[in-house]
Structures are given as structure tokens and as C-alpha cells.
Amino acid sequence: MPHRAELTPEIASRFAGIALSHVAREYPNKMDHVLDGPADVRGPRDLHPIFYGSFDWHSCVHGYWALATVLRRHPDIPEAAAIRALFDAAFTARNVAIEAAYLERPSARGFERPYGWAWLLKLQAELLAHDAPWAAAHQPLAEAFAQRFRAFLPLAAWPIRTGVHSSTAFALTLAADYAAAADDAELLSLFEGRARDWYGGDRGAQAWEPSLDDFLSPTLMEAACMARLLPAGFAAWFDAFLPDAAAARPASLFAPVTPTDRTDGKIAHLDGLNLSRAWCWRAIAAALPADHPAQGVVAGTADAHIAAALPHVAGDYVGEHWLASFALLALLA
């Protein structure tokens, strides 16, 4: 069985170096931007003075989350001073106001929904844990995205069961950390209700996955969402949802996948799939009783997935601009 990987100071420093190399790298850039007219032909830094790097807006957000997380966990890493200086310059009232104003455009209603929304709130949950002015400066933007969840979720009659950015299970799971950190019981209750309505009756998951684009497992992400939001009844729900987990079935959920071309941005998603599966399996294990019959196979499966992907966090920029964040999710689960 592979050794259980943890976030060591050496790994924290490595991830910090990776994130520092791209959160302020403006190009190449894949923008989520609707042009309402010629005046909207503007560059990433002009539109988003904080989150203009890392190839796309949401990856920049979780690049900042990765930096904040490793700084808090290992404050003595060599990159600590550079992280603090970056955050002091980025999280200002002016920059946050510009980021928030972008959301007021009618054509931005669907901007980064729901993936970027969730990562922004996950970042704020982390900033709230720091003895620094960053969270206070960033709070108006966090509140704007929390309000987007409040407006959208009552309209969302069905979940989005994908393995990519549109996954509602992923969004609820990450955003719940903000609701808890901000002591927003109403928002957390909204998340819990949606999870119950969307997934509470699911049974016997077939797990016909992965798809080539996946960086999330639709099956395991749903289970991790239920573990996060409805832990009291999770064991019984899980036993009905994946009744053969102790026998490592469905087999597709237990074997790491191998990307065939890590220079292809979509195929490189599969390294992220390995890491997010590990995160989910660890979260599932933590929510199950210690003597649950699936515990042994789940622990080994999570470690095998991390071992398969961790060496590939850096390399081609199509993966390097985002994979360290998913490695952190897995290592800290």
C-alpha cells in the first residue's frame, strides 16, 4: 500500500513556488467575458485586478487559496514573505471594488457559475483564518458571490451531475466551508437543503466514468458533498449509494487513471481527477465509522490516486496552473 501522503514543509514550499509563478502571469489567458459592445474589449488585468493570472479567473482564485493555505500551515517556508507581499498588494479596497463591479454587468449573471463562485468562497474561508487584513478587504466580493448562491440555488430544480466545472456537488462542498467559517447558518442550511433534495434519494450508483474531460468524479463528488453537508445520516446513505464499496466496486472508482497527453489541456484533467478522487475518498472515510468495512480499501485507494498524480503537478502549463490546488485538497482531506 502506498505511504499516506501529507503536506510537508517541502511540499508546501514546492506548491507555493508553483502558484507564485502563475497567479500574476497574465497570459496566456482564457477569459469568461461577454462582450456587450466595443468598449468591452479589455484585457484580463484591466477587468480583474486581483484574479487576472493563472490562465483563467477561477484558477487564479484557487491559486491564491493554495498560497494562503500553505502559508498558514507552514508559515516558515522560504516563500512566506513573497506571499504576504503579494496579498498586501492584491487585497485592497480598490481592487476588490473593481472585481465586485464586474459582477454588476447584466451579461455577467452566469460568470463562473458555480465553480468560480465556490472557489472564491473557499478562498475567503481561508483568509478568515489569517491574522491579516486580507479577509476584511475581500469580504465584499465574498458576500457578492454568497448572494449569487442565495439567488441561484432556489431556482436550481435539478443538480448538474458532471465531472467538470459545472458540478453542483463540488460547488456546495467548497462553499460550505465559507458558510461555516463566516458563521452563516442560513447559507449553510440552504446548501444542506439542496444536497438533500438533489442527492438524498440516490441509490446504486453505476459510476460510468471517467469521461475524457473529467477532473472530478461525478459519483465520488456527490458522496463527498453528502459527507460534508449531511454527516449525521451519511453512513446509511453511502451504503445504499455504493453498496459494494468494500469489495472495490464499481471498479472504475478505485483505479487511478493515466493521461495519454499531459500537454493537452483537457486530457491533463485526468491528473486532477486522480487528486480529486483522493480528496473525496479521504473525506468519505472520515465521515464513515472507523469500523466500516470499506475503510481499508478506501484508504489504500486514496493513497494510490495521490501517488499517481503528485509527481505531475508541475510540468506543462496546461496542468501546472491549477493542479497544486487539487493536490492540496487531497493532502489536507
Q: What ranges have pLDDT less than 50 throughout 5 or more consecutive residues?
A: none
CATH topology: Glycosyltransferase
Give the number of helices: 15
**N-to-C series of helices and strands:** HHHHHHHHHHHHHHH
Rg calc: 19 Å
Strand content: under 5%
Overall mean confidence score, pLDDT? 97
Helix content: 40-55%
What's the main sheet like?
none
Total beta-strand segments: 0
Give the structural class.
mainly alpha
How many structural units, i.e. domains? 1
The CATH class: Mainly Alpha
CATH structural architecture: Alpha/alpha barrel
Distance between the termini: 19 Å
What does this structure look like?
The protein has 15 helices and no strands. By secondary structure, it is mostly helical. The protein has a single domain (9-332), classed as Glycosyltransferase. Helix 1 (9-20) runs antiparallel to helix 3 (57-73), helix 6 runs antiparallel to helix 7 (134-152) and helix 10 (218-229) runs parallel beside helix 12. The longest helix is centred in the middle third of the chain and has 19 residues, at 134-152.
In brief:
It contains 15 helices and no strands. The chain has 333 residues and is mainly alpha-helical.
List keywords for this structure.
333 residues, mainly alpha, 15 helices, 0% strand
